[in-house]
């Protein structure tokens, strides 16, 4: 049996690892000539780390994961701590730590683990076809590849997705803009072993520690879509949006490298029940594009890969196996997309009264409620 994987991002490389685990030959094709991930870093929660362990890439998480042992919410305007607690009880209960990691380092390490020379870059898929004998992928350079099945992990702008679901879905603007990047850890901004989040006015400023003494930072601001802003004006834009906020926020803004900050208008896509058409399956953002508000985008792709590996174990019927994959994943990923959307609306002031109520709740929070919510999400994955 042979498979084709479209995409060499986190989803594509985890899919390739899933097939390798079952001894299935596959070829990986990536559209870009050089893999350049969008976004500075990613929070991989315990369920995602468990999946990476299962897929044989746990060492990558051990090496790249930052020491995120505690969590705190701080009032962005006056700098007062709203809640602060250790994540050790969560880690003990779910059996694995969370690992915030550099996105570029993670993707590069996954490709290197697979074998960079085995990934075919600059291969833009144009269309796919299938019949009783297998799947054929056609590329814009005239190339044609055949296999028994195809895994489309070609991202939120997936070319293969409309073939699978039967229509071209629209991306939904989530209502806020995210700036993100990396800075050297400065304890005047936040503790070096803590996920620290400043909140207020429906805005958010967050720092997570990653490897090599760096913070992954991000700023969220509810804004209309399509403003004439880019990284060149990031520092002045953020200084304006966060004028009057606490000194650590101002220190962070001053530390930003304008040439290395990302500005993203955040979108998701309405969940769809179909992830598979015959011998073709969607995986990762191609199958479930979510906002980053519960930190499960990458984790969901890793979960997909685990389930894909499990259904292919000793399976002689690829169509039945992929149908089982769809049955196990469709409900889970829909739940994650909608859960992230709900959290997004509360965090970013869609109804400010609800956001203010959340701020009040944070001031009474001991950590138990937040960790219980995290535990439910983590344990809903295929590895518990």
TrEMBL record:
<comment type="similarity">
    <text>Belongs to the FAD-dependent urate hydroxylase family.</text>
</comment>
<dbReference type="InterPro" id="IPR036188">
    <property type="entry name" value="FAD/NAD-bd_sf"/>
</dbReference>
<dbReference type="Pfam" id="PF01494">
    <property type="entry name" value="FAD_binding_3"/>
</dbReference>
<dbReference type="GO" id="GO:0006144">
    <property type="term" value="P:purine nucleobase metabolic process"/>
</dbReference>
<dbReference type="GO" id="GO:0071949">
    <property type="term" value="F:FAD binding"/>
</dbReference>
<comment type="pathway">
    <text>Purine metabolism; urate degradation.</text>
</comment>
<dbReference type="InterPro" id="IPR047712">
    <property type="entry name" value="HpxO"/>
</dbReference>
<keyword id="KW-0520">NAD</keyword>
<keyword id="KW-0503">Monooxygenase</keyword>
<dbReference type="GO" id="GO:0019628">
    <property type="term" value="P:urate catabolic process"/>
</dbReference>
<dbReference type="GO" id="GO:0102099">
    <property type="term" value="F:FAD-dependent urate hydroxylase activity"/>
</dbReference>
<dbReference type="GO" id="GO:0004846">
    <property type="term" value="F:urate oxidase activity"/>
</dbReference>
<dbReference type="InterPro" id="IPR050493">
    <property type="entry name" value="FAD-dep_Monooxygenase_BioMet"/>
</dbReference>
<keyword id="KW-0285">Flavoprotein</keyword>
<keyword id="KW-0659">Purine metabolism</keyword>
<feature type="domain" description="FAD-binding">
    <location>
        <begin position="4"/>
        <end position="337"/>
    </location>
</feature>
<keyword id="KW-0560">Oxidoreductase</keyword>
<keyword id="KW-0274">FAD</keyword>
<protein>
    <recommendedName>
        <fullName>FAD-dependent urate hydroxylase</fullName>
        <ecNumber>1.14.13.113</ecNumber>
    </recommendedName>
</protein>
<dbReference type="InterPro" id="IPR002938">
    <property type="entry name" value="FAD-bd"/>
</dbReference>
């Amino acid at each position: 049996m042979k498979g084709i994987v479209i995409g060499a991002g986190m989803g594509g490389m985890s899919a390739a690892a899933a097939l390798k685990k079952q001894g299935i030959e596959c070829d990986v094709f990536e559209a870009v000539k050089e893999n350049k991930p969008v976004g500075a870093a990613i929070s991989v929660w315990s369920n995602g780390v468990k999946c990476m362990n299962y897929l044989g890439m746990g060492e990558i998480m051990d090496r790249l994961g930052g020491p995120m042992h505690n969590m705190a919410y701080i009032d962005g305007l006056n700098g007062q701590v709203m809640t602060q607690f250790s994540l050790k009880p969560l880690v003990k209960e779910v059996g694995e730590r969370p690992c915030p990691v550099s996105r570029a380092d993670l993707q590069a390490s996954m490709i290197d683990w697979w074998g960079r020379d085995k990934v075919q870059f600059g291969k833009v898929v144009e269309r796919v076809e299938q019949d009783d004998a297998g799947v054929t992928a056609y590329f814009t350079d005239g190339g044609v590849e055949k296999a028994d099945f195809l895994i489309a992990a070609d991202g939120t702008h997936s070319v293969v997705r409309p073939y699978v679901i039967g229509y071209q879905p629209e991306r939904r603007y989530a209502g806020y803009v995210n700036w993100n990047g990396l800075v050297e850890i400065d304890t005047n901004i936040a503790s070096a072993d803590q996920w620290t989040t400043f909140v207020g006015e429906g805005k958010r400023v967050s720092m997570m520690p990653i490897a090599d003494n760096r913070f992954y930072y991000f700023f969220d601001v509810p804004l209309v879509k399509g403003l004439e802003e880019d990284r060149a004006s990031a520092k002045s834009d953020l200084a304006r949006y966060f004028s009057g906020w606490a000194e650590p926020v101002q220190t962070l803004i001053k530390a930003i490298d304008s040439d290395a900050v990302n500005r993203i208008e955040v979108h998701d896509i309405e969940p769809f029940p179909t992830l598979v058409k015959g011998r073709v399956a969607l995986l990762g953002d191609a199958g479930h594009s979510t906002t980053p508000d519960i930190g499960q985008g990458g984790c969901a792709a890793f979960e997909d890969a685990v389930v894909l590996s499990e259904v292919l174990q000793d399976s002689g019927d690829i169509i039945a196996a992929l149908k089982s994959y769809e049955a196990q994943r469709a409900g889970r990923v829909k739940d994650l997309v909608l859960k992230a959307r709900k959290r997004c609306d509360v965090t970013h002031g869609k109804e400010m009264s609800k956001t203010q109520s959340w701020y009040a709740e944070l001031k009474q929070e001991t950590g138990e409620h937040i960790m219980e919510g995290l535990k439910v999400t983590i344990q809903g994955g295929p590895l518990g």
